[in-house]
Write a structure and sequence with these properties.
InterPro entries: Low_temperature_requirement_A. Keywords: Membrane, Transmembrane, Transmembrane helix. This is Low temperature requirement protein A. The chain is mainly α. It is 75% helix and 0% strand. It has 13 helices and no strands. Helix 2 packs antiparallel against helix 3. It is globular and about 65 Å long.
Length: 401
């Protein structure tokens, strides 16, 4: 990249006229919000790829616990584990949108965060099986402390937003100390402290950005969240595919039933993709209040997407007699996350640009999906409802264009 191009996007030349340096160092100045052609970097894509392990572990253990009838245990652990995954990924993504200078310290600190993500993923089995969050906490703290170092670098190089960046650094450092101290607590204090710390995590960006808004790039953020949505959709497809393969190998249940369920799962995933990506909009990223709602709302998008895949796997387990739950419970394992997904995506992406009766299509579909759980062909019916919603929404969007 030529020197003038680097300066145009906020990346200063590394070391000119000073001889050869061992490290490529640049000032971590704020990126511009109007950069042209701002897209995900190879490092960001690598970061996402390494988070796949944690997402896969969480979804897999949710599937097995649900099939085993451990419903409360499964949902509680899944929501906690995915909070750590989503929050760590999201914090890096927003920071990178504002301050990615692609020098060697930035790359190395990002790789430390990746190591933390892999450590977190390694701790998921222990969290689900015995409630032991030691390894997950260790991985999470590694992630977050590396993020603190990034914010401190930004504070040094960006005096205009120094108060904001220091608030991020101090806030996250204090909360990480709280997560470590939480390990010494017993129930129910352990749970209450965890809830308080989670709320603290969520409040830090709101508090920090009140001083001076960071220069995130709306199109870049939209792309990054879309890419992670596709990653989680891919995990849903993988979970369902492995379950179908297991069912086919066992030769239990009729081939027709298995084909119908597999086809329904495929139609469902296709419809989810269509609904999310039919129109890319940054309308909710025009103010800090709506940006916070949009970003935080994606916790429900990501968790419900992976949970839908786990629910499809549970439905296939039920087909071959490996699930120790009732038909209603296995139907709701798909229906609840699907209804949550439809309602959340409508709230964040579909509802804002639409007008007229079509605005109500998503809430109605969410209710119908839940009602379908009480039918004998729950998953196929849910897939048809979701596909019909995608068709209605597409027709309505085309009319407004």
């Amino acid at each position: 990249m030529p020197g003038e191009t680097r300066e145009a996007v906020g990346l200063e030349p590394a070391a000119e006229g000073r001889g050869t340096r061992v490290l490529n160092l640049r000032r971590m100045t704020a990126r511009r919000t109007d950069e042209a052609y701002r897209s995900s970097t190879p490092l960001e894509l690598f970061f996402d790829l390494c988070f796949v392990a944690a997402v896969a572990q969480a979804a897999s253990h949710l599937h097995h616990d649900l099939s085993g009838g451990h419903l409360g245990h499964a949902v509680g652990n899944y929501l906690w584990v995915f909070f750590a995954i989503w929050w760590a990924w999201g914090n890096f993504t927003w920071f990178a949108s504002a301050y990615d200078n692609d020098d060697d310290p930035y790359r190395l600190l990002t790789m430390v965060q990746i190591a933390g993500a892999l450590t977190l993923a390694a701790g998921v089995p222990r969290a689900f099986e015995s409630g032991d969050y030691l390894v997950i906490t260790l991985g999470y703290v590694i992630l977050r402390l590396a993020m603190v170092m990034q914010w401190l670098r930004a504070a040094r190089a960006d005096p205009e937003r120094r108060t904001t960046t220091l608030r991020y650094a101090v806030g996250y450092a204090l909360v990480q100390a709280g997560w470590v101290a939480r390990l010494a607590c017993d129930q129910p204090t352990y749970l209450y402290v965890g809830l308080a710390l989670a709320v603290g995590e969520l409040l830090i960006p709101i508090w920090a950005e009140r001083a001076q808004v960071t220069t995130f790039h709306p199109e870049h953020i939209t792309e990054r969240f879309g890419l992670f949505t596709m990653i989680v959709l891919g995990e849903a497809v993988l979970a369902a595919t492995i379950a179908v393969q297991t069912a086919a190998d066992s030769r239990a249940g009729t081939d027709v039933d298995l084909l119908v369920l597999a086809g329904s799962g495929l139609l469902l995933v296709f419809s989810l993709w269509w609904l999310y990506f039919d129109r890319t909009t940054q309308r909710m990223l025009r103010s800090m209040a709506t940006t916070i709602i949009w970003g935080y709302g994606h916790y429900l998008v990501f968790t419900s997407t992976a949970a839908i895949g786990a629910g499809l796997a549970v439905a296939i387990d039920a087909l071959i007699g490996h699930a120790h739950i009732t038909h209603l419970q296995q139907s709701l394992a798909v229906g609840i996350p699907l209804a949550t997904w439809i309602a959340t995506v409508w709230w964040l992406r579909v509802g804002p640009p639409l007008r007229g009766p079509a605005v109500a299509a998503s809430p109605v579909a969410a209710v119908l999906v839940l009602a379908a759980a009480w039918t004998s062909a729950a998953v196929p019916l849910m897939a048809v409802i979701t596909a019909a919603l995608a068709a209605v929404k597409t027709w309505a969007v085309r009319r407004t264009d």
